[in-house]
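The pair is set out directly below:
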Amino acid sequence: IIKDSATGPYLAGSRCGACGHTFVGERETCAKCTARGRMEPVRLAETGRLFTFTVVERSFPGVTTPFIDAIVDLDDGAHLKGTLTGIAPDPAAIPFDLPVRVEFREAVPVGADRPYLTYVFVPQEGAPA
C-alpha cells in the first residue's frame, strides 16, 4: 500500500513492458514471459471480480470469525488475496465472479496500540449482497 497525500492510498504493482502482464508489488523479472528489466511500476486497479474464497471459522486469538478470505482478479489482470467484507460469510450467499472494489481501512493488531493501513474487498454498488 502506497500512501499518496494527493490522491489517497493505493496498491502498487508492476507491469511487464514485454508481455503486458500485471503483478502485485515490485518485480524485476516477469514471471509470465521471464523478461528482465522490462517491469514498470503501476497503480493497481481498485475494482475486480471474486475468483475464489473460503469462509474461515477458526483463526488467531483476537481475530473475529467467521470471515471470508478471498482471491480477486483485479480489472488490470493482477490477482490479490484479502478479506471480503460487506456480505454474509455464508457460501450459499457469495456468488463467484462477484464485482468488488478495494477499500482502505485502519486496523489495530491484537496487543498493539498503533493502527496500520490495510485493505479489504467490498461488493460494488448494485452487486448482490
User: Anything to note?
Assistant: The chain is about 0% helix and 40% strand.
